[in-house]
Design goal:
Helices cover about 30% and strands about 30% of the residues. The protein has five helices and ten strands.
Length: about 210
């Protein structure tokens, strides 16, 4: 797949919670195997099956240019372009609230690089927040096999610092302080909705 300018796309292999991660040596590394998208998709499937929330991954609009048909009823896309930049990864509705979030992974052990986030994504999340939606980031540190929810309001503090010429990343300690560790469990694998309940309460209090 290519961008509209013809550039070829390369695959990127890239406030208190009950339990915050203070000692990463105690993390259960036996849960490795899934990437963050798979973990979220499985969690969302459970939420939908139990009628808890309706949240889906957003499709990325593409324009197909060339298709090969090696066999009847079997098409292979040979060339395609993104029609426009994507916004965030997931959106949906929960308990009457619009939910919108971005999901990112990093192999970095100690920080999350902010160049993983794009200006148009931040602008989109700002617009969602103005419309009283619930907006956040799910960030996975693959080395520690740990996932955090970072509310968008807290994220903006670090984004503004970055855009003002400051640090180009958010340290894991900062995310630990301002975000929420999501413990792994069976169903759903990532129960981020429990934290969304807290965000809804905080947003409601902020609007009073």
């Amino acid at each position: 797949m290519n961008y509209p300018n013809g550039k070829r796309i390369t695959k990127n292999t890239s406030k208190v919670l009950q339990q915050k991660s203070k000692d990463y040596s105690k993390i259960n590394y036996g849960k490795r195997g899934m990437n963050l998208e798979e973990e979220i998709d499985k969690s969302n499937q459970f939420l939908r099956s139990e009628n808890i929330a309706i949240i889906h991954k957003k499709p990325t609009p593409i324009q197909i240019v060339e298709v090969d048909y090696p066999k009847r009823q079997k098409a292979v896309i040979k060339e395609a372009y993104f029609r426009k930049p994507s916004t965030t990864d997931y959106n949906g509705v929960y308990n009457g609230y619009y939910i919108d979030f971005e999901a990112k992974e990093t192999k970095n052990k100690t920080s999350f690089p902010l160049n993983n986030i794009h200006d148009h994504q931040v602008s989109h999340m700002q617009q969602v927040l103005k419309q009283k939606g619930i907006c956040f980031l799910l960030i996975k540190f693959t080395y520690h096999d740990s996932v955090f929810l970072l509310p968008f309001r807290e994220f903006m503090v670090y984004w503004d610092r970055y855009k003002s010429g400051g640090k180009k990343s958010i340290t894991i300690k900062e995310i630990e302080h301002d975000g929420y560790l999501i413990p792994y469990q069976y169903r759903p694998r990532l129960d981020y909705i429990k934290i969304v309940d807290q965000l809804i309460t905080m947003e409601s209090e902020a609007l009073k």
